[in-house]
Design brief:
Blueprint lengths: L9 H13 L5 H10 L1 H6 L8 H4 L6 H10 L26 H8 L5 E2 L21 E2 L54
Antiparallel strand pairs: 1-2
C-alpha cells in the first residue's frame, strides 16, 4: 500500500496539489493566496504560528517572505526587458531586494494559525489539520504599515476609508452587522 502512495500523508499532499489543479488556467494572485493559506506550506516554510513583534517580542519568521520574493515572484536580480540582468555603474548585478525588505514582508505573513482539528481527515501527527486552510488570528497579525520594494507602502493603491463616500460599504445589498468590540489595554512598544 505505501509503495503506491497510500499513506497517512497522501491526503494533505493531494490537497496542496489541488490548489494548482484549480488554478491551472486562472491567475497568479489566486494561486498565491491559496498557497499562503495552505497549512502544508505554512508548516514547510515555518510561518504557521508566526506572530508580530508587538505580540511576542520576537521578530516574525522570514522564511516564506524570502521564498515568495526569491522563487515565486521577482528573483534575486533585477532584469531588463530582454531578460538580461540589470547592471549598476560598476558592472555588478542589481539585487531586487535586501534583507530589510524580507524583514518587512515577513510582517505580512504573521497571524496564520491552524484550522481547528476535525476527526474526519487523515493525520500525519496527532492533532494536525494539514487539509483545511489556515485561519488569520488578528491578534497575532502585524497591524503596522509595511514598506514595499519602491519606498511606498503595501496597499498604497487601495483607497483609504476616508476616501470612500459615506455608506459606500452598504451599496448593492450589502449588510452591516456590529458584532462587538474588545478593548485591549496592552500597550504597543514605542
Amino acid at each position: 500500500r505505501e509503495e503506491l502512495g497510500f499513506d497517512e500523508m497522501s491526503g494533505f499532499w493531494l490537497t496542496y496539489y489541488d490548489i494548482f489543479v484549480r488554478h491551472a488556467f486562472g491567475n497568479f494572485r489566486d494561486v498565491m493566496r491559496e498557497v499562503t493559506y495552505s497549512p502544508v506550506m505554512g508548516e514547510y516554510l515555518s510561518y504557521k504560528g508566526s506572530s508580530s513583534y508587538s505580540t511576542k517580542s520576537k521578530y516574525p519568521d522570514e522564511n516564506y517572505a524570502r521564498e515568495v520574493m526569491q522563487l515565486f515572484t521577482i528573483g534575486l536580480v533585477k532584469l531588463n526587458l530582454d531578460g538580461s540582468a540589470e547592471l549598476d555603474g560598476s558592472g555588478q548585478e542589481v539585487p531586487t531586494y535586501s534583507n530589510d525588505h524580507v524583514m518587512n514582508f515577513a510582517r505580512v505573513f504573521t497571524g496564520f494559525v491552524p484550522a481547528p482539528f476535525r476527526s474526519n481527515i487523515e493525520i500525519a501527527r496527532a492533532g494536525d489539520d494539514l487539509i483545511d486552510p489556515m485561519l488569520m488570528d488578528g491578534s497575532r497579525h502585524d497591524i503596522f504599515p509595511k514598506p514595499d520594494l519602491d519606498g511606498k507602502y503595501l496597499g498604497d493603491r487601495y483607497p483609504l476609508c476616508t476616501d470612500i463616500p459615506p455608506g459606500a460599504f452598504l451599496l448593492k445589498g450589502a449588510r452591516y452587522e456590529f458584532i462587538g468590540f474588545t478593548h485591549s489595554k496592552k500597550r504597543l512598544p514605542s
